[in-house]
Amino acid sequence: MDLEYPRFAWCGDGCLFVEFGDGIDLTINSMVRALGRDIHSLAPGWLVETVPTYRSLAIYIDPWESPREEVEELARSICQSLEPGPVRAGPVLEIPVCYGGEFGPDMKRVSEHTGLSPEDVIAIHSGSCYHVFMMGFTPGFPYLGGMDRRLETPRLPNPRTVIPEGSVGIAGKQTGIYPITSPGGWNLVGRTPLRLFDQEREAPFLLEAGMNIVFVPISAETFETILSERGSTGL
Amino acid sequence: MTVEVLSPGMNTTVQDLGRYRFRAYGMPVAGALDRYSLMAGNLVAGNGPGAAALEITFSGPEVRFGSDRLVCITGGDLAPRLNGDPFPCWEGGFVRKGDVLSFSGPCSRGIRAWLCISGGVNTQPVMGSRSTYLRGGLGGMEGRRLRAGDILSLGLPDPLWARGEGFSVPGELRTVHSADPVIRVLPGPQEGAFTSAGLDVFYGSSFRVGAESDRMGCRLEGPAISHCGSPDIVSDAVPEGSIQVPGNGLPIIMLSDSQTTGGYTKIACAVNADLHLLAQLAPGDTLSFRKCGIREAAEASAKLKQGLARIRVLLADHRSRSKGNIQFLHQDSGSMKIRFCGKSYDVRWEREK
Q1: Cystine design at B161: which of A167, A171, A222, B46 (Cβ 3.0–4.6 Å)?
Q2: Are residues B170 and B312 in the same domain?
Q3: Beta strand B53-57 with B207-209: parallel, antiparallel or unpaired?
Q4: Domain contains B300
Q5: Per-residue confidence at A102, pLDDT binned at 50, 70, 90?
Q6: What's the complex ipTM?
């Protein structure tokens, strides 16, 4: 590991960043989550919450109460013996996606840009396992890693003002799912009937950092079936 | 036990101290932009410090009370009026059933105020908080700004709630609105991504609050701050108060509704104790930055914490001497709920004939 890391940097008086690197990397990301897990298992009284990102853990404390020295000391001492967890050890979740048609209005654009047939786009997109590196941007949005480079397609020149909840998109090297209806410029290739975020659910979020997901192609009929069952199961 | 919204004001929302524990899933904290004012107002109104209140921006609402209550309006002075007569700020004021509270608008002493009501605003909590997160459409009143015709339910006030009547928070314990404030900041994690000329611009210039500023962020206009290299970083957490500088060189200070992660370099982060200054700035107002040390930041936070403790002490003294609570006993009959040893009682009284 780089000697420069881990790096400890305060951001204001209420947040300590512990950085494990400077790039998007599975081993670095597993260190981030390992530190988060260890801190939460100790449950120090000053801890508000932690936010894992690609390469850093943000440790939020109460700026009115917390002894900063103690926070940094604890983080440093955990880091001394921190082992990266096994890479991609998290659970694998299957996300059903209905590709193309009304759910994937940009399938043609992706197909034309990549030179792949829509069938190939679907096969490649659903043939990879994606790692949830972090969550952010909007409630429940996963930053996914692992998209096949053949699918790279630039963002839309004119972003849409409304993208329906559950839409699956491609932007540059990234793929992702819109958890709530929002504006955005990603190429939409399909939609999942699962709710990534539901404030009424006991566990409001379907995904969390460290999980892995695969997309499973489904028909429009199956989409409607899952959607109609969703009301009764809460998913 | 309700408050009826006769007119909503420009941007009135239900806010408490915020929604925690879900930032790791991308959920912004939301909550009052000035937590000290919220807590102080709640204490005076006889509530716990984190009860939900109405955050009022610029033009205030007009509300009618459905029951007797104590209210305390903190933050900036938006010229409150009760049944048309001037009503004090930072003071416990008794309102009767049917009374109408309104606001004449800002008089250059801040643009945001918190209306704290004994019992607290009792909307359904979402994920542990009543704070409204407007972009996500959740929390508070159906996840939106108040509208005319809304009926807000109030919680059950604590016993002796009315005893805060007439208590005025001393001037030195109020947050003071300042035109052209100097915001104290600590260096950010990417200070090294800026040129020394860029840092000189940041610390040496006056910035103007842009028209697109909102609860999410304070967008500043002024001289551009230059980066050494890329203005973008691998997406990282963005704490409240952190100051991101995108490629255009213009800083954005992240506020309560800010997204949880962002990909721009953070040049600095406002100290927690100065966030209330940002809550009072209108588009066109100016501010500047001063670098301080962690000790000064800690002292500033300790001062706010001591301020609240001092308000509690003064209030306890006022309440022990106050006769305010029996004001409504002057009526020939009445009723109230009291909580005692964890149980709730309905108490009714009638004057002897």
Answers
A1: B46
A2: yes
A3: unpaired
A4: no
A5: very high
A6: 0.92
